[in-house]
Amino acid sequence: MDFVSRANSVRLSGLPIIGSLLDLPEKHSWLKFHEYIQQHGPIVQLNIMGQSHILLGNERVWDDLARARGAIYNSRPQSPAASILTQDLHILLMPQGRVLRERRGILSQLLSRSAASQYEPYQWLETYRMVRDIVDDPSEYNEIFDHWSTAMGSRMLYGRAMPKRGGFQAEVMAITRTAEQTVQPGAYLVDTMPWMRRLPEAVAPWKRYLKSMSRRDEAFYYKMWKCTREDLDSGRDVPSWARLCMEDLNNEKSKVSMTEREAVHLIGATYTAFGTTSGNLKSFIFAITRHPEWWPRLTDEMDAAVGDKRLPRLDDLPNLPILRAVVCEIARVWPVTPGGVPHLLTKDDVYQGYHLPAGSVVHLVAWACGREPALYPDPDMFKPERWLRPGFPTYREPLTEYPTLNNMPVFGAGRRQCPGMLVGTRNVCIQAMMLVWACEISRARDAAGEEIVPPAYDFVAGFNVFPRSFKFDLRPRSLERMAMVEAEYEAALAADPMRD
């Protein structure tokens, strides 16, 4: 491979015309990106079919660029395939500009600290349900965790409970999978050869498929929107994002300039983001199964902070630094979006002697950022103690506040940082707290009595990833604790304004 140095940057030219295209794997491209960053430094430029791609593998560098220079780093590259699927209405993929600012402003209000508190009862209710279900049948953990995500999304976005698995859950997960597959780099040739978008559907079956999926997704979004509309018309008093949008659209004094169709897509597309919570939870079980030595530390800490006479509460979290350290270490070692969400550089820039050309696709490679040796010694080792012990670069005080998922690379940085960071962090912590308090998790054993250890990295392919199905053992810590979970669950159901 030909390496060219320009203004101190590392540029991998690759082959004529196609550049480095053939060097990139079809799946888990971030592993190759990490390899380049290890070899050539924290900023690497690739040429892929004439398009400049800049790989960033350093949190400080990305923080500098995304925050101080966010005006030129926070747009999005436009994918023809994703454009067809989303009709250019998905907020995650919108280019920088007035429309994006308005949409993010709406989401920021809906996800503010004061607004987030109203969702807490639903987070606990769905987590009590999750614990009951997984104790009943641990082998169904993938579906149970997916149900938590879709049920919570249904409540927040549409004011609708989803008490049973199946039904809407299957539709949401199908939409989520299609979206993630479509935005994955290299999934469609049209993204590297944009001229292919002009091909007629008769000779472009991929275009027919994407349009059919787009119609499917929009029909589902309108179906859910209609459910909220019916509730509002009938006087059913339950809060939801869709309801707030409807009220704004009908308010002549409102400053919101969206059409109803744009609002339908804004709320509907947000549903797909809830799948990241499910992925985090699967990685939590995976990490504990691979590193069972941390489980007694978690349960001992939980017992000291909470005891066995009541269930955990959110205000117990400051007294659970080990739990937060484990959650942060999982996000570092196995990020749900390891390749990051690509950005678009809209103006030539020079950073620490690196020449970064306008029009480049910029990748914050979360997988590489979490393995920067200077910040994370022994980067490939699962070491939650790095967040808890003085002497590690990641240690911060006070331990009642740190470690925290907030502002980690998993949420991005700058003006495109995930507006759901607070709610997402609470989701993961509430789920982990209840699993530690109520359950005993250990390795499963095979027919010969040997422990089954899941592979170090056997994750599904896609934009967002999680471990493939693996075996583990889960049982209740005691019948008394499960009786308390059951009682709290029934009480939460009785008080639920969304119950049928």
UniProtKB/TrEMBL annotation:
It comes from the Eukaryota. Heme binds at residue 418. Pfam families: p450. Its cofactor is heme. InterPro entries: Cyt_P450, Cyt_P450_CS, Cyt_P450_E_grp-I, Cyt_P450_sf, Cytochrome_P450_fung. PROSITE patterns: CYTOCHROME_P450. Keywords: Heme, Iron, Metal-binding, Monooxygenase, Oxidoreductase. GO terms for molecular function: heme binding; iron ion binding; monooxygenase activity; oxidoreductase activity, acting on paired donors, with incorporation or reduction of molecular oxygen. The keyword Iron applies. Belongs to the cytochrome P450 family. PANTHER family: CYTOCHROME P450 2E1, P450, PUTATIVE (EUROFUNG)-RELATED-RELATED. This is Fumitremorgin C synthase-like protein. It comes from Hapsidospora chrysogenum (strain ATCC 11550 / CBS 779.69 / DSM 880 / IAM 14645 / JCM 23072 / IMI 49137).
